[in-house]
User: Fold these one by one.
Assistant:
Number 1:
Amino acid sequence: MNAIQARYLGRRTKRIEDPDLLVGKGKYIDDIKIPGMMHAYFVRSEYAHARICSVDTSLARKLPGVEAIYTLSDLMQVLRFDRLPLAFPPGKLSKIAMPKILASDEVLYVGEPIVLIIASDRYIAEDAAELVVVDYEELTAVVDPRKGLKSESCLASSRTKSNTFISMMVGFGDCDEEFGRADNILSEEFYQHRGVPNPMEPRGLVATVNPGKESLSIWASSQLTHELRNTICEMLNFLPENVRVTACDIGGGFGCKFMVYSEEIAVSAAAILCDNPIKWIEDRREHFLSSIQERDQFWNVDVAFGSDGKLAAIRGRMVHDQGAYAPHSVTVPYNSASSVLGPYILPAYSLDLVVIRTNKPPVIPVRGAGYPQGTFIIERLLDKIADHLNLSRLAVRAKNLIPKEKFPFKTGLKNRAGKPVIYDSGDYIKCQNDAVERADIPDFKKRQTTARSEGRYLGIGFAHGVKCTGRGPFESATVRISSSGKVSIFTGAISIGQSTKTTLAQICAETLGVDIAQVNVVCGDTSLVQYGLGAFGSRQAMLAGSAVREASLIVRNKACMVAREMFENDLSWKFSNSTKELFLQKGYVNVRDRPDLVISLGAIASALRGSAGYVFPKDVEVGLEATHNFRADDMAYANTFHICEVEVDTESGIVKIDRYIALQDSGFIINPMTSEGQIHGGIVHGIGNALYEKMIYDGNGQPLTTNFADYLLPAATETPQIEVLFNESLSPLNPLGMKGVGEVSIVPVTSAIVSAIEDALKPIGIKINEVPISPVRLVELIMEKEKLAQLV
Amino acid sequence: MTDQSEQISITATFNGKEMTAGASARTTLVDFLRHKLDLTGTHVGCEHGVCGACTVLVDGLAVRSCLMFAVQAVGRQIVTVEGLSSANQDLTDIQKAFWERHGLQCGFCTAGILMSLEEYFSTEGNSYSEDEIKDVLSGHLCRCTGYQNIVRAALDIVSDRTLK
Amino acid sequence: MKPAQFQYHKPQTISEAIQLLSHLENARLLAGGQTLVPMLNFRVSAFDNIVDLGCIPELSTINENVDSLDIGSMVTQRMLEYSSLVKEKLPLLSHAIKYVGHRQTRNRGTIGGSLCHLDPSAEIPLVALTLRASVEIAGPEGSRDAVISDFIEDMLTPAISEHELVVKIKFPLRYMWNGWAFTEFSRRKGDFAIVAIACVMEMGTNGEVKDLVLAAGGLCEVPFRLEKIEDAIRGKKLNQSLLASIFENGFSFDALDDVFAPSWYRNRLACTGAKRVLAEAYERCQSYQELI
């Protein structure tokens, strides 16, 4: 496809979502209003670990406006199981890794839902919650996963004999040999914490049982409507055609809506039991208590390397705080372990991975899905290698980057399914060099020197990031043209803010030669498209985009075929065999050099709709439409290189980010404007993870940061100007050569920022092996160094 | 205990139109706007006065409507995002700038930011610097955009209206 | 996060408000709502009666008298921020107000509300203390005045009964402050201060500091004057060596301590802030001296 001639593909295109969103016409889950709708609210555990001795709802039931109050045993009247079904292959983890629909005998984290209240409004439901009396017997909570690992007596769940969900080895090659003959070895410990997803819109669901209780209609603020539909069917015994799940406009996900939650099943069950539409909206406090999050990892690693800076091997151990349940098995820790490789050639690798159950909310992927953590390890190690050998950080990286000629590159790792991890394409050194050129490092060094002479500390940091994108096995699209000539796309892909509708419409409009305003995109409606997987893992542009592309091509070819027949029949006009004579433009099929010969797509659609008693076009299926489920078994690897300038105030430990450059390679970019926007968002989320965001629990597992005053998100005043540049290494895995955009942008951010802070404080010589790094902690590290300096 | 859920009659001007509806004393202004008046363009993000998604104009000033009770709106002029554009829904220049600059992604925080910018651009004595614009935005949280394009859109307005 | 039920009252005069307070059970005054309403929404507090002071016009005036600038308790932080009178007469207050929350907060938040809440790190109580303000309080027995240092009884505890309300805050104009400065340390712009320092200074004709007030907020339970430092500076010229000698041992107050900011960190910030603020205030004195 020649991008210069393209009208939409590869071009900055204004979004089709915006005109409605800008005037307040968006329809988010809490905007849905159904006559007779009731409101749900959950009574949640006050303890991190406790036995539930009794639940007394009698007083709450008497409150005027309360419609119903349900515990697990009530819901079991319609539920087939008391836990969410396994979301991973059987045998991997025990079924008690899955959350219960409502806790009944034991609670495993503060915020775990116990009782569901249905009332005429949310205010009354919250009043009723205060009247529910739960009698707890407090049990010891497992809070630090390292302690949980050692303890056999203090168990996070009384149903288990150990706090270890699973322990496994991730690696390849011969570490013993590499370490045995290495010139140099360094050993380091790292602590990393990622926090709460915090989209601006919390979770929510509306469930209606249709008259006769034979079918359900669900609206969901969900990243996976088909999975939600399937789970509801399984849990509540419905056929798929009798449960319709529709995605609304969604105010962000970042992973927290990438799961089917107990609350969603409970509310659906309640809708059946009380025969009323029910709306459940999570409030911000609940989001902090019971949404999934990522949290703590403790790493001990050794790195073996040559005196020229070449990596030989990495080995170590990582303890991962998984929380009370593992609904997505061990995706996050496995990803963290795998992503240590980054864009580098590593001859041998061995990581002991221990996944521990704690009395905190469950962990599943938040934007970046564990990749930021693995990246932090390799990037920090490379900085330390550079320091140890007195080489530049850029030179050490260049020494180890996988060169372009080696792609597709077999890393030696296996993925969770046991398949080899192969990087499809990339030019890592070019990204590094291009970004370095943009950064003008000599100029920075001058400013750094001047600042030091004035007692100010400026620093520059670097980091590479690689992320698997396009997780399959497929995504769906139906492209249909109606008699009006308007084009509809139905897809299992879901729009959570990442401009899915515009991107898909661009591909379709380009292929069909229509104006983008003629394209309507419907995401995540399970009745309009039978199969789908949804929004996660930076996959939708690639997979849904390819599905739309393929389906649109089929529709285009069909339209041309039918147009040809219609021209020949109606006008006795004979085509030569050249298919190039027909082309689509402005909603018509046109004939080259014959501007008088046009047929509208709408007319063709009418013909293919059929008319009883009249001739139907030859050799074609009914309908000007096509469905394509684009299959993908391999992942495309996007990469990025970040450069960050900071200033550190050594008195207060406050870090200011002065400049941020991101050079990203996500293959072919459908819309540079929206891709750039995604990168902005990923970087600022990463700034949050580096400097601000920490979900703190006390020794009893009580969350201490459950509001926006205590848990800090970066605002505009905390963000620098971000410069985004693109390189393009096409992926061989899909026709347009696309790779995912949204997550690779967050992957190296904590690494780049910490690298910059260490560089700024090089005269003091502090070492930062943890993230987030708060001003208090930074000052502590500075003071420790100063004390040591005084002793010498 | 007396029935404190009795409805209080609230009459105020909403987006230029005088309207009357009842609400209990504890009903927040944002809930009143969204569920009583069906003005769902204003969103609820935190209910404790930090995220700014619920920002509306009360007598011309940007206010967090999750921290006001509907009864406090009596007799006042309230403007929500629905009241920004004209009757035939043409976008304002600020809204157009957001569209041009890709200043929104999921759109959930957008209405609140538009209201703060509406107040800002209607006030005298600003410096219209990038720092000042970021200061206006500091009362709003956005998880999607990283604020970059919102700042760019606001700077476009500064130059389009030749404010500097 | 919806509040519990309450009865809503909106008195139209001060005496009506006092009347209500005297007979209502479990009542709370509603000023700007920027602190109270989040507490109600979280249900960390609940009251049977909420008395909204927003409909009493005389509480929202700023009046200049011969010896004081009287600011009504319901004057919003925004009104203070944009008042040219306040900027002229009380530049410290005018400057510090910009650190209070964000613009939306200041559009509703009031000077009285902040003063009566007494969050340890709040800017307004700190500035009121520094400027030696007093409050006029109305109650069932009539009116009384209280000096701010007496009014600030303890953390989150003003010396005021549940039957009284603050009518106005009076800032004396008789002091010859010709220099002032304010700084605060916070994680993000508009956040609660970890520590805030305020200073007003009067410089004599020979460049000596005739008088000063130096106060810290966020350091301990209530804002307080750093009197030992004030005494060490009073009467002297402020220079680097004087500052170095005063601050050489840092601060070791019995400061607030929590997971976000331990006491040693607050002491460190307060020390850094105090140095900066003294130097800046002195510089302003010098500029003022040069003008006349």
Note: Chain C touches chain A at residues 1-5, 42-43, 185, 187-192, 259-262, 265, 268-269, 272 (CB under 8 Å).
Number 2:
Amino acid sequence: MVPSFTLFEKLYNFCAVRRKILFSATLLIIALSLLASSRLHLQEDIIAMLPDDSSSVAQDFRLLQLAPFTRKLVITLRGGSSSDSTALIAVTDRLAEGLKAAGIENVMTGPANISGGFFRWLGTSLPNLTTAEDLVRLAAGITPTEVQNRLRTRYEQLFSPEGWALKGSVQTDPLSLSSLALEKMRFLNMVPNMRLVQNHFVSADGTSALLVVDSAVSMTDSGGSRDLLERINRAISSSVPAGMSASVVSGHRYTLVNADTIKRDLYVVLTLSVFAVLAIYLVFLRSLSAVFVFLVPTSILVIATGAIALYDVNVFAVTLGFGGVLLGMVDEYAMLIYFSCRQGGKDPAVITAEVSRPVIFGAVATLISFGIMLLSSLPGQRQLAIYSMTGIVAALLISLIVLPHLIKPLPEVKLSLTSLGGAWRPPRRVVIGVWLAILAICTWQSTNIRFNGQLGAVSMVTPELRLAEEDLIKTWGNMRGKALLFAEETNLENALALNDKLFALISGRIPAGDLVSLAPLMPSDALQRANRERWFSFWQNGRAAQLGRDLAKSGEAYGFSKDAFTPFLATLIAPPPATTVESLRAAGMGELVDSLIIRSPGVVRVLTMVPDTPQVVAALSEEIKTVPGVRLISQSRFGDNVGRAIIRDFTRYLTLTSVLVLALLVVVFRSPSRVMLALVPVVTGLLCTLGIMGMCGIEFNIFNIAATILIIGLCVDYGIFMVCRLTEGSDHTTNRAVLVSGLTTLAGLGALALARHPSMYSIGITVLLGIGTGIPAALLVIPALCGKDTG
Amino acid sequence: MTRILFLFAIALFVAGTASAVEISTTDSSAALFTSLERTAGGVNTISSDFVQEKHLALFKTAMISKGHFYFIKPDQLRWELTSPVASGFVLKGDKGRRWHERTGRMETFQISQEPVMKLVSEQLFAWAKADFAWLTKEYRITVLHDSPAALRLEPRSAATAGFLRHLLINFNADGRYVRSVELHENDGDFTRIKFVNTVVNKQLQADLF
């Protein structure tokens, strides 16, 4: 007697007299799911694959978003063959106006107008900013000879055109002491290859101008990004004359490219899946009842999508893209029910009860596979798990409760495998020999497989985008690719103090042009106090008075009035106002302050930027261990870290899935040999996937790893079905169910392999290989190992 | 700072072109401005000596400097100090050159990349092109005297008016060139540049620029 779950026999009989209610309830659920699906919003960005927990990778990602150029659009305007910077700047201003006319307000073509306010601030802030090292240089600059030389230079400058601007500063700073503070500006150069021409950002070679757009549109908002980029392109078209060109680089472009690609893929994948599955049904099932089998997976898509929309309206596109896979995957339960019920020969209630056992075990194995993904720190994976599990449970219930009532048995004609192309039966030894040979080759080749943990490997980057990014780096230096150091504290003073320590630690190692830090111009209050005390101490013991005498003596020779330098001498000993964020803003450095001091509730971060090279990052990683509270985030290393974290996660889940599936098989079959047999498709599928990918040089990325879990979940179903059939007395309908459902799965996945987006393609190709080899293993190898033929 | 330079540039230009102003702020001035504009149109080169007096509170006495000024329409200019320090600059199109004899410094530059020189040259060339629309926008112009023409220019913008009170421009008898320029600052300091030995439309050596 075939083992069965009598619950489903009773359930069948119960529903048999209430079919209208059963069908109505099913249709109602589908309709409600359709309604719920209509509220979902498609999200196509990489967020799906970035951890959102409290892991260091997740924190790093959040901090990376705070880098000055990460969330901004950078427009490079190229002047063409002409090196006329006047024309370039005129077009830059026209483009900025065009952008404003297009509703894009925050357009920056140069720094805030640094004028007299800035120099006044430099002069008054000197006591706050001057370090002990600066004072050594200062002492060398105020010797009588040096005073005479400097004063002469200033005197002569007054005759020149520039002299018209220098009258005030000659009086307040006749010895140009504020140049000590001015030099500190070297640490605020965020764009390496940039210089200022008429207060505009112009490239070092003078051929390009830079416009920075700060938009409120989130980079993850594909609709907003599309609108924003369209407006920018319109402004470029109307403002940039022939012979000049403008290119835009920003995360928005990546979002849009990925969104467009995924949308196109979704259309292709889902359309092809539906038609391919329908075609397979028509070819192999050739019955009106087959329509109902087809409706099971299609209604599952609706139900799963509706369920996910109820869970979260923001649905990742990759989740829906997986619908094609699900469509081909969940029909195996319906298929087994269909073939068994069509075969007839028994009470449909009894058939349902008998089939329910392998179906439920198979579904549980698949649910385990997906259930494990709920533990993932990647939101996309968790959503995928919910989507798939909902679909599997719905497929299971519809297949076991609703479908049996829709299939009419064929009373006379027995289906045979021969009608499905199973006439030829390969000899057992040949099957086992070939199988072992393939496994050996694939095991050997799997050692060649290369892992690519970079997120870029699963993100769509068009040649145009790559070129624009390369051009940006070539023109301006790698302004978007700096490693970030965050001095993080609960308040500004503590964060600045930490930033001081960091600067003291690294400034000797990294030259000013490469190091971007606020510390030299905005030390903490404590350090400013220390600097001031040192400054006043410096001018004591008659030094200020001596300088006054030297100035008077040298000034006399040039005709300076007696009181000419009184204001200057007074500033040397007068307590200056503290250097604050507000004073920096007033001096025209608001943009810099906002870029480098980042406040969020309860946290203030002061940002320092260094070159993102392996040498610098490796050295700093060690050095900053001595300054707790400083966090180093390397953009290049971040990709590796994410990849490693994801691979680590999935390896763990893979292990857990394998253990749980094995445990399930042990519980179900209670025999080591039958458990081993049930695992044949899984082992074959996994080894062949790795082997073929290794052989073909296909890199293994984070989505391939996710897809291996699917291979386990799908192939173990086939193993369970076949072992149940071969060892527990099920009939040959199982072969047919495995074959046809396998084909539909391949159809769904085959469509996914046609996707252009790397993430979908990766899932598609992996599962295609796994299932493509797992099905023959189930249909041929398990019977051969059992010592039974395939029919 | 830049504003002062900007004014200086205007002074230079006025001295160079003698085009003065053609700002029809009042109907009575219109005839004078038209005349000055017509006269400026006939000036192609200027060669002149100058004496600059800077009356600054910072100094006990006036700072006196002397030098030469050369101009070729539309975009070449040489401003050369001969005493007390030999130094100066040349502007030619978008290129520039400056020197300082004592320090031996000699450097070339691109005008568009030097805000100060950019302002000087911009103003100069604007005047050379007789851009009176721009002048009207920037200054209120009063005719102090018709012949020889004397004008008073007061900045319209509050920012410029913050440090510059006014400019005084005096033309020679036939209105072809400027005899003197005075820049009066709000703090009482002022600068006077007197142009002497001025020759108009003389062939100038190319190597001056």
Note: The two ends of chain A are 20 Å apart (CA to CA).
